[in-house]
Design a protein that fits this description.
Jelly Rolls, 5-stranded antiparallel β-sheet, 2 helices
């Protein structure tokens, strides 16, 4: 049995806090070939997940909030936000599922934010994500401005 408790969330959040990327995964799947990839994704404000979609192969991705708050946004092919939600256990929005071929990203809104993430496998870094060319790449100095734009676009201060 694999148990998700507050101690595990704190440990993974602490690792995210000292990570250069400001996030840390904790995988529950044993191999990258697993049919379902299941993990904790601890994220700190300021981390940047470039908008992407899962296609060829098509994959569904789900996020369930365990701690904190996070914005999940979907986009059209031009990069305009089409739908979004704020995951927050306190507010009763606990999770979301992203369909294949849908541009999306996740942005943590509070320190110590942790989501349970599940995605169809297997994982291959060569074809796991198709990154949006209309958004900055991870590590680009413009990524913090892009995050600010998303927060503004979604009415988050």
């Amino acid at each position: 049995m694999k148990i998700i408790d507050s101690q595990l969330l704190s440990e993974v959040s602490s690792q995210a806090g000292v990570s250069a990327r400001k996030r840390q995964n904790y995988n529950f799947h044993e191999t990258l070939d697993a049919v379902v990839q299941r993990m904790l994704n601890a994220m700190e404000p300021g981390t940047y997940v470039q908008p992407h979609k899962h296609e060829n192969p098509d994959k569904i991705e789900a996020f369930i909030i365990l701690k904190g708050r996070a914005l999940v946004a979907e986009f059209d092919d031009a990069g305009e936000v089409t739908t979004y939600c704020i995951l927050s256990a306190a507010d009763g929005v606990l999770g979301t599922e992203i369909q294949p071929r849908t541009w999306h990203c996740i942005v943590p809104l509070e320190p110590g934010t942790v989501v349970y993430e599940a995605k169809e496998g297997p994982y291959s870094p060569l074809n796991d994500k198709n990154f949006a060319t209309w958004a900055p790449k991870e590590g680009d100095p413009q990524s913090s401005q892009y995050i600010s734009y998303l927060l503004f676009r979604c009415g988050i201060k």
